[in-house]
Please model this.
Amino acid sequence: MSYNTKMNNVKANAHSFCVAPMMEWTDRHCRAFMRELSSHAFLYTEMLSSAALHHGDKERLLAYSEHEHPVALQIGGSDPKELAQAAKVGESWGYDEINLNVGCPSDRVQKYKMGACLMREAKLVADCVTAMRSEINIPVTVKTRIGIDDLDSQGFLSDFVGLVRDGGSDLFIIHARCAWLHGLSPKENREVPPLNYPRVYQLKKDFPELTIILNGGVKTLEECQEHLRFVDGVMLGREVYHNPWLLSQVDASFYEKPPRVKSRIEAMESYLPYVRAELSKGTPLQHITRHILGLYSGVHGGKRFRRCLSDNAHKKTADLNVLLNAMKEVEEIGVNYAC
Model:
C-alpha cells in the first residue's frame, strides 16, 4: 500500500510531519536546505535561551530565509516575564510559532533552570505559557518528555499536560522517553530510557482536543504512518538530518501535495542560489555544506560527494566551486539522482 493510500485515512494538519529542533544542527542553513526538499514539513530552530534573546545579537540569532516557513522558534527559559519578551521578539521576526523547551536533559540546560527539569514545576510552566500568550498572537507550544526521573507514569504526564494546557497551550510535542537527569549524557538520554509510545497514544485519548505530536526513535516514514493512527503528528530529528532525502517524500506522503523535487540534483540546483547569496555575505562554505553531507546517504557515489566536501569546504579559499565539484563527482559515476 502506498503512502498516499494510507494517508486517505489520516487527517493531515500543518504538524503532520515535523523536523525536530537540534542544537548546533538545525540552524538557518540547515533549515534552508531542508526546505528545498519539502515545502510543508514543519521546521524548528535550535533552542535559544530567553536570556540570549534579551541580551544577544538578534540578527545573528534570529535571521532566517523567508522560504523557511512554516518555521517555529524554540525558546528555553523559566522566567515568565523574560519568556514573554522573547516570544514577542520571535513574533516580530515573523516566526509562525513559539515552542517552549521542557524536554532537554543536559546538565548545562538544567543549571539555568531550563528544559526537562521544569517538568517538576508544571504550575511554573503553565505561568510561562500564559505570559507568552498574553504578548503574542501566534501559537505557544510545548516540547516535553513522558516523565522525569522517578516521576514516570501516565498519571503524572496527564496531570502535567492538563495544567500546562490550562495555561494556554493546545499543542504538545512528546518525546516518548522519560528524562533521567543524573548519570546520563544528552546522547544517552535519547537512547537509554525505554520508549513508551502507548503512553503518548493514551495522552491523545485523554486530551482529544489537543494536538499531540510524537517524537523519539522514529526512523522511517512507514513508522510515521503507523503512529499517525493514534496521534496528530510525528517529529523526526537525527534520522532526517543524516538522511535528508527522506524529506523529499513528505509533501506527497503526509500533505497530499506534489513533491517539491524529484531528484537529488534538482534539490542541489535549487539550493545553489542560497549558497551563492550566503557566500557573498561572507558565510564560510563549511557552515553551509556540513548540513548536506547526508544527501547521498546509501547511494553509490555518496562517499565521494562527502569526501570532496569534507576535504575542501573548510579551507579559507573554499568557494562555490567546491560544491559544484562535489556534485560533479557524483554525476560522473552515473548516480540515479531519484533513488
